[in-house]
Amino acid sequence: MKQRKSSIFLSYLFLTIALVVIMFPIYYAFTMSTFDEKEAYSFPPKFIPSIHAVDNFATAWKTVNMGRLIFNSAFISITVALAKIFLSMLAAFAFTYFGNFKGKYFFFAVILITHMLPLPIRIVPTYELMRTFGWVNTYRALTIPFFASATGTLLFRQLFMTVPSSLSDAARIDGAGPMRFLFNVLIPLSKTNVGALFLIEFTYMWNEYLWPMIVTNSNNMRVVQIGIKMLLASEAQAAEWNIIMAGAIIAMVPPLIMLLLFQKTFMEGFSLKEEK
Fold first, then answer.
1. What is residue 57's predicted lDDT score, i.e. its pLDDT?
2. pLDDT digit string (tens) for 111-141?
3. For the chain, how many structural domains are there in total?
4. Mean per-residue pLDDT for 182-203?
5. CB-based contacts of 148: which residues, under 8 Å, 6+ apart?
6. What is the mean predicted confidence (pLDDT) over 165-176?
7. Does residue 107 lie within any of the structural domains?
8. pLDDT score of 188
9. Domain limits for position 175
10. Structural contact between residues 187 and 89, judged by C-beta atoms closer than 8 angstroms
11. Is there a domain that residue 38 lies in?
């Protein structure tokens, strides 16, 4: 009994320490966003919030037109996430329920191989393609190259393979075609996976910096991550870290909102798994 209590105590102690380590940078960033310039450079550093939060957040918002940047990031992230989910479902559905076409495993392997190619390797040919199409500095260049998802295809394929074949047989007997079976049966069963993939892809695109920096050339098409970089002063001037941290805190809010919105979906999925 004592050994069990000790094990529980150590587990909670470890989790508490891990939580502090993870949350401290966020807390310090928020604290820094409430300082004035003098307090931001004070030594030893302060860890108690100050009274300049409103001014700093307003300055960060106006300096880089943060509202426009957040709109761009949100539009790009939501569009890419939804497109990836839809296309991944169609691809997984084809690989799972249309298993007689030639080259099935070859094409699936090719899809997985593309997942191993990091974005920097694809930047030059992708940029040349966008320039040829005349899509540079447009939403099409910021979204369409990211529509395909090897991760999503693999995720939904593995899920669809666990669905009993009796369901598809019953749907076929009832006169349901393939697309009706997909939308009326498989998608409702995939709610948890859809929520998880949406959060992953939304966060990935929200944090994207390199590609938007390369493919856009006007401030109206920039994204929020570039906006944080724009808050940095030139090398001849000292960086206003209180303003930069205010911008970083603003950029954290939309992904946090998405996490809170989809939290219930995750919990329902966990509950179903525990019941099984």
1. 92
2. 778 777 777 788 888 999 999 999 999 999 9
3. 1
4. 85
5. 84, 87, 111, 114
6. 78
7. yes
8. 85
9. 64-230
10. yes
11. no
Q: What is the CATH number of the domain that holds 94?
A: 1.10.3720.10
Q: Which pair of structure tokens corresponds to residue 59? A: 């300055």
Range 13-28 average pLDDT: 90
Give me the helices (H) in 98-137, please.
Answer: 104-114, 119-133
| Contact status, residue 58 vs residue 242, Cβ threshold 8 Å | no
Residue 21 reports pLDDT greater than 50: yes
Structure token digits, residue 242: 């209180």
**Cβ contact 160:93 at 8 Å:** yes
Q: Quote the mean pLDDT of the chain.
A: 84
Give helix then strand counts, H and E, for the chain.
15, 0
As a whole number of angstroms, the distance between CA 134 and CA 157 comes to 35
Token pair 């320490």: residue? 17
Residue 243: inside a domain, yes or no?
Answer: no
CA–centroid distance for 178 within its chain? 30
Give the Å distances, CA to CA, from 59 to 13, 39, 53, 242, 243: 40, 17, 10, 10, 7
Residue in the block written with tokens 């000790």: 6
95's CB contacts (< 8 A; 6+ apart) are 104, 107, 108, 153, 157
Give the C-alpha separation, 260 to 263, whole Å: 5
Residue 15 lies in a domain: no
CA distance between the termini of the chain: 30
Evaluate the omega torsion of the peptide bond into residue 44 and state whether it is cis, within 30 degrees of 0: yes
Measured distance CA(68)–CA(224) in Å, rounded: 9
Read off the DSSP letter of residue 98: -
Q: At what angle do helices 241-275 and 2-32 cross, to 10 degrees?
A: 150
**Token digits for 210?**
């390199």
